[in-house]
């Protein structure tokens, strides 16, 4: 049975038909519900609403929309682990993992992740709510979160929110307030971020320690975007993509019979070794690579990618991902493949060209997510507003300068012996490729002194690996295992 009640915190700005459209800046709405996870009943309290962001002078500058799930039939109460969850973009709402991965409700989709009508949500028997409470946070301009005008009606400067470091700073402060309001300082704490959220939580790991005195047990990177590699270009970025080509070509049965006849996990180590040991130094040589060497690399690259030697030579061995999405099936089915999940197929106006007309996977996902999140918030959580829910919001000209988030994670781990890191990636993700995620882990701590505190899990799907039911089960179980292994178990935090 589900129960609902409203809590008004401070003097909320109510939405009124007689006023301009506004967000209720400090209001929460609560329901209680239950779900069966791993064969056991989990009772929970779902709190959704707004909590303010204040500037250094204590003035409200924004209010963030969040949803907080707390298990109520657990004797550990507020000492249970808690996970703060972010998606990416930047500019993406906290919708994807909320109603498709870790939360108590998930989309009604088929077992491979494709949309089904009628849209909606159903119970998630794989949710990690049995072992940890979860807070889904929407940064400014995502979901219902918005900036708040001052008494003169002036909105705060975008620079306070829309940049790598600004984003980390205000979100860390917001998390401190949330932790205090909900009495969760004794809880083991985790942060999880998907895609750009990976950059965000790497930075938050140190900001929370140094500015908010909040120490974590774990950082979870889901299909992480590391901008030290992503969109940088050059030999390193290009060579790290090769194993993704192998995985995708294997899925579409475009590899030579010798590779195609083997299991995916048996051939990826070969592709990874070629990428690092041969392709990377070859690309680094540029025009200094001899003709014979170039042809030999093209032949082997074709072997591992399913793209012809001639086409690779025309690309100077440096094949952009967007070209691969257009090229792989050009001469067979004539269809394109998806960016974020290359299992998905698209149809372009013409088969010629260097990139697909649209992202087949993203349009498929929006087909499912946009109706479902709007339905769920209003009909299941009981929160109603005329404010538009931004699945993707405008975050202006995002400031990517001074991105030291990878080093921030290293420092946070060095200072906090409890802190462990889990990376989860889909093999068919062509946006933030799985091998780039592995490489990023290697680079956080080149000394190797903390390498035993890193773990990597790969899945036979794409960027949102949890949309495939088999991987939804496995990925949530991997989270449970990570939470268990990163528990202090009474041991002192020391080296």
Q: Give the ordered list of helices and strands.
A: EEEEEEEEEHEHEHHHHHHEEHHEHEH
Number of helices: 12
Q: How much strand?
A: 15-25%
**Mind describing the biggest β-sheet?**
11 strands, mixed
Q: Total domains, how many?
A: 2
Class by alpha and beta content: alpha/beta
The H-level CATH homologous superfamily of the largest domain, spelled out, is Alpha/Beta hydrolase fold, catalytic domain
Any low-confidence stretches, pLDDT <50, length ≥5?
Answer: 3-18
Mean pLDDT: 94
Please tell me how large the radius of gyration is: 23 Å
CATH architecture designation of the largest domain: 3-Layer(aba) Sandwich
At CATH level 3, the topology of the largest domain is: Rossmann fold
CATH class of the largest domain: Alpha Beta
Helix content: 25-40%
Task: Choose one word for the global shape.
Answer: globular
Distance between the termini: 48 Å
Describe the structure.
There is one protein chain. With 495 residues, the chain is of the alpha/beta class. It folds into 2 domains: 3-228 and 370-485, Alpha/Beta hydrolase fold, catalytic domain (Rossmann fold); 234-361, no CATH class. The chain is built from 12 helices and 15 strands. The strands form 3 sheets. Strands 1, 2, 3, 4, 5, 8, 9, 10, 11, 14 and 15 form an 11-stranded mixed beta sheet that branches. A two-stranded antiparallel ribbon has the order 6-7. It has a two-stranded antiparallel ribbon with strand order 12-13. Helix 1 crosses helix 2 and helix 2 (196-212) crosses helix 10.
């Amino acid at each position: 049975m589900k129960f609902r009640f409203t809590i008004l915190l401070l003097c909320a700005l109510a939405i009124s038909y007689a006023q301009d459209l506004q967000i209720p800046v400090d209001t929460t709405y609560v329901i209680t519900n239950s779900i069966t996870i791993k064969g056991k009943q989990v009772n929970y309290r779902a709190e959704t609403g707004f909590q303010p962001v204040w500037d250094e002078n204590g003035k409200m500058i924004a209010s963030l929309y969040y949803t907080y799930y707390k298990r109520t039939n657990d004797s550990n109460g507020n000492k249970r682990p808690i996970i703060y969850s972010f998606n990416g973009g930047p500019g993406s709402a906290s919708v994807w993992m909320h109603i498709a991965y870790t939360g108590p409700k998930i989309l009604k989709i088929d077992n491979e992740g494709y949309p089904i009508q009628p849209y909606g949500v159903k119970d998630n028997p794989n949710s990690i709510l049995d072992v940890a409470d979860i807070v889904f946070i929407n940064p400014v301009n995502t979901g219902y979160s918005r900036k708040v005008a001052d008494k003169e009606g002036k909105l705060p400067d975008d620079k306070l929110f829309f940049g790598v470091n600004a984003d980390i700073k205000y979100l860390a402060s917001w998390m401190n307030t949330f932790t205090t309001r909900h009495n969760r300082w004794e809880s083991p704490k985790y942060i999880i971020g998907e895609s750009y959220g990976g950059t965000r939580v790497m930075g938050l790991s140190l900001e929370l320690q140094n500015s908010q005195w909040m120490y974590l047990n774990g950082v979870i990177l889901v299909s992480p975007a590391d901008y030290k590699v992503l969109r940088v270009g050059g030999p390193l970025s290009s060579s790290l993509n090769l194993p993704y080509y192998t995985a995708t070509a294997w899925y579409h049965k475009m590899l030579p019979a010798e590779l195609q006849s083997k299991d995916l996990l048996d051939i990826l180590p070969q592709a990874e070794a070629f990428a690092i040991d041969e392709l990377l130094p070859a690309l680094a040589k540029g025009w200094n690579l001899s003709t014979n060497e170039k042809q030999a690399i093209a032949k082997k690259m074709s072997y591992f990618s399913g793209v012809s030697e001639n086409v690779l030579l025309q690309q100077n061995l440096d094949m952009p991902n967007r070209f691969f999405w257009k090229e792989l099936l050009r001469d067979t089915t004539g269809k394109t493949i998806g960016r974020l999940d290359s299992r998905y197929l698209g149809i372009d106006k013409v088969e010629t060209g260097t990139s697909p007309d649209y992202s087949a996977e993203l349009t498929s996902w929006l087909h499912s997510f946009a109706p479902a999140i709007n339905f769920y918030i209003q009909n299941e959580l009981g929160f109603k507003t005329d404010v538009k829910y931004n699945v993707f919001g405008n975050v202006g000209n995002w400031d990517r300068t001074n991105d030291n988030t990878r080093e921030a994670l290293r420092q946070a781990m060095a200072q906090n012996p409890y802190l462990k890191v889990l990376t989860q990636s889909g093999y068919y993700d062509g946006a933030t490729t799985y091998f780039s995620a592995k490489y990023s882990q290697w680079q956080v701590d080149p000394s190797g002194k903390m390498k035993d505190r890193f773990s990597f899990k790969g899945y036979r799907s794409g960027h949102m690996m949890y949309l495939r039911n088999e991987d939804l089960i496995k990925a949530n179980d991997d989270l449970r295992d990570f939470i268990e292994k990163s528990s202090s178990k009474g041991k002192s935090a020391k080296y």
